[in-house]
Write a structure and sequence with these properties.
It contains six helices and no strands. It is mostly helical and 174 residues long.
Length: 174
């Protein structure tokens, strides 16, 4: 006969295993969302540079309310560094990217692309920057497609493995 503790233990083991699988699946989904948000940010920055010819600090201030999560944090960090006297946008961007994105679910290749923007932001005429923005947008599109593929394959796999492992643990404990 089962004791109440054994039943509770089986339920908790099943739930814990399932939860781990779902958390891993959500981490993969989060990568896709971060990349999409960054792509949107870059498109907004490109538009502001092209149409309004504003300096980057003004663009960053203007876009802050329109951004969310990591993209918002990136703009905040860049703006804060600029206001504290740092004027090299390349250094500001690079250190802000590392600070904001290093503890997220995106990978090193994603971070390299995001970091590339600091190499050309405010460095040349708009036509040259436009070409760089287009390249970054293309690369981000490829990474977002990869993230979407991982959501469809690995995301489902992690969820199913978590539940399956939970069932297996429950059976073993019975």
């Amino acid at each position: 006969m089962f004791s109440m503790f054994k039943i509770v233990g089986i339920i908790f083991a099943f739930l814990a295993s399932s939860l781990i699988g779902f958390m891993k699946s959500n981490e993969i989904k989060k990568r896709k969302q971060i990349l999409e948000d960054f792509r949107e940010l870059i498109n907004l920055i490109s538009t502001r540079i092209g149409y309004f010819k504003e300096p980057l600090p003004v663009i960053f201030k203007t876009l802050l309310p329109e951004t969310k999560d990591e993209a918002h944090s990136l703009l905040e960090k860049c703006l804060m560094a600029y206001e504290m006297g740092e004027k090299d946008i390349g250094n500001i961007w690079e250190s802000s990217v590392k600070n904001v994105y290093s503890s997220t679910s995106i990978d090193e290749d994603d971070i390299k692309i995001i970091s590339k923007c600091g190499q050309f932001l405010g460095q040349s005429d708009y036509e040259s920057q436009k070409k760089h923005f287009k390249l970054i947008d293309y690369q981000m599109e490829r990474h977002i497609d990869d993230a979407e593929q991982q959501v469809r394959t690995k995301g489902k796999m992690y969820s199913k493995i978590g539940v399956s492992l939970g069932v297996l643990i429950a059976i073993v404990l019975l």
